[in-house]
Specification:
The complex is a heterodimer of chains A (264) and B (269). By secondary structure, chain A is an alpha+beta fold. Chain A has ten helices and five strands, in the order αααααααααββββαβ. Helix content of chain A is 71%, strand content 11%. Classes of the chains: A alpha+beta (264), B alpha/beta (269).
């Protein structure tokens, strides 16, 4: 009786075609590889200090709320990608004709989808982080309307990530790209027009920082103002004379030159 | 018959304001409904109090802490000369354990608030220098006590009233007090003689400066050495603030306008 069933089983096992065994092997290999990648990726991301970097971002808080973490999501994403790829390859091995009809397109599409999801997640996290950084920077500015700056920065990053992701999976994004270009152009033009003076001052300030033609304590004459240098920063130089402190934009240094007075 | 409750009642009898030092939000809420003014004195306004005085250093000396709070309130016209205030402070540990009744008096104005708030340099810069000096006083240089002299603010004038003792290690560098690297650098350079000069915004302008301001008429307590004298003299000649770490007794002293304003023991922090 026992012998009989063993023979049956053996016969059954032998009757399975080699192709299916190969497919099973591929599938198992993919699962093992996927698990391995999940582990390695999670370790790498942690080692790279990702959890500390994205601490406090809205995305991280949301995923924490549903009991996971950004690191887990990112590493599992790569694992799933490999497993799904393995499944497709396995099916292709097992039933070549069927797979060619249906899966060839999907296999081509899958990496793009994977990259798109990755871009979206990274974009969301980076956007959150940018917002956080901006609002920390601007905390000392006591102006209620300033709150819009971090938000705009956040959604700009989201938008770019969204366009990139859409582009990855082949959705027509031309209009969105044009919109983005217009937005960037407006930003650059406004920035250049409004901050022309600031920019040239900063450029001059950079020169002053690197070369220090005059230092704190020197007596100088910049344009009509003469006095003792009290402070030099990127945009302005403070010079003081007889209790009057002049705040001179640094680009004046290049416009009119400076006189360094060594002796009275 | 005097019970502890009566004693407390005497202390709190018609006070004009209550000063609460570093309250937790739960503790502060108890005061919110009271009719008298409540002034919060804390390093950070994390209870959203209306009247708030920022405490730049956690003064271990309670007299200094109270003095700072009251001077800050006086400066902003929250309390006036002659007002009676009750101060709720913690002396031992972190909980509020003491009630001090103080009569606000122009004479108690020691300038300790002005040292931070009304100096030429940013309050944050002065606080950072205090922190560096306290750290230096606690640890010393390789375990040995070390002295140091920092002149903060009005750097242009200070530079013109001093001369270099050696080449300036901070030439063409752009380090500010409060940068993490600075503690180590200052510790190394404090072995050498002379003063550190720091600008209004906290940039370290120079080390090894020999201060040349005349010391005529500078009145500082007897027993303090030449380092203190030099520090006091430069603050009289300029609008700077000087913070001195004494090598002999390890105390940190701050001078402004040629006068000793504040004296703290680094070991307390």
């Amino acid at each position: 009786m026992v012998l009989q069933s063993r023979v049956d089983l053996e016969g059954l096992l032998w009757s399975v075609p080699d192709r299916l065994w190969l497919a099973l092997g591929v599938f198992l290999l993919a699962v093992v590889l996927g698990l391995l990648v999940v582990r390695v990726n999670a370790g790498l991301l942690r080692r790279a200090g990702l959890p500390e970097t994205i601490e406090g971002t809205a995305f991280e808080r949301t995923v924490r709320g549903i009991g996971t973490s950004t690191v887990a999501i990112l590493s599992q994403l790569s694992g799933w990608f490999i497993v799904i790829l393995g499944v497709i390859v396995a099916i292709a091995v097992a039933e070549p004709s069927y797979a060619e009809q249906f899966w060839s397109q999907t296999t081509g599409f899958l990496p793009s989808l994977f990259v798109a999801v990755l871009i979206l997640i990274v974009g969301i996290v980076v956007g959150d982080k940018v917002e956080l950084l901006f609002s920390e920077r601007l905390r000392s500015v006591k102006l209620p309307q300033i709150g819009i700056v971090p938000t705009v920065a956040k959604y700009s990053v989201f938008y770019v990530a969204f366009v990139l992701a859409m582009d990855q999976i082949g959705v027509a994004t031309f209009a969105l790209v044009v919109l983005l270009a217009l937005y960037a152009l407006a930003l650059v033009v406004f920035g250049a027009v409004a901050g022309k003076q600031m920019l040239s001052s900063a450029a001059a300030g950079l020169y002053l920082f690197l070369n220090e033609p005059y230092g704190i304590g020197d007596t100088v004459k910049i344009g009509a103002q003469r006095g003792v240098v009290q402070e030099i920063d990127v945009f302005v130089t403070h010079i003081e004379a007889d209790g009057e402190e002049y705040v001179v934009p640094n680009d004046r240094v290049f416009e009119g030159g400076i006189v360094i007075i060594h002796e009275e | 018959m005097s019970t502890p409750a009566d004693l407390l009642e005497d202390l709190t009898d018609d006070v004009d304001a209550v000063f609460v030092f570093s309250p937790s939000s739960g503790f502060y809420e108890q005061f919110e409904e009271s009719a008298i003014d409540v002034v919060v004195v804390a390093p950070e306004n994390n209870v959203d109090a209306e009247t708030y005085v920022e405490l730049p250093l956690p003064f271990e000396n309670v007299r200094d802490r109270i003095r700072f709070g009251i001077e800050g309130a006086m400066d902003r016209d929250i309390v006036d000369d002659g007002d009676e205030v009750a101060c709720v402070v913690s002396i031992f540990g972190d909980d509020h354990d003491s009630l001090v009744r103080v009569r606000v008096d122009e004479a108690m104005h020691s300038g300790v608030y002005g040292l931070f708030a009304n100096s030429r340099a940013d309050p944050g810069v002065i606080r950072d220098v205090f922190e560096v000096v306290i750290e230096l006083g606690k640890k010393g240089q390789k375990g040995k006590p070390v002295g140091a002299l920092f002149v903060i603010g009005d750097a242009g004038k200070v530079m013109n009233k001093s001369r270099p003792l050696s080449y300036n290690p901070f030439e063409k560098s752009h380090v500010h007090v409060g940068d993490p690297i600075v503690n180590v650098m200052l510790k190394e350079f404090s072995r050498l003689d002379g003063a550190f000069v720091i600008s209004d915004s906290g940039k370290i302008v120079s080390a090894y400066r020999y201060l040349e301001a005349g010391a005529e008429g500078v009145d500082i307590p007897k027993g303090l050495g030449t380092r203190h004298m030099a520090g006091a003299a430069i603050t009289r000649a300029t609008n700077a603030t000087a913070i001195v770490l004494s090598e002999s007794d390890g105390m940190v002293r701050a001078f402004k306008g040629g006068e000793l304003i504040l004296e703290i023991d680094p070991e307390d922090y």
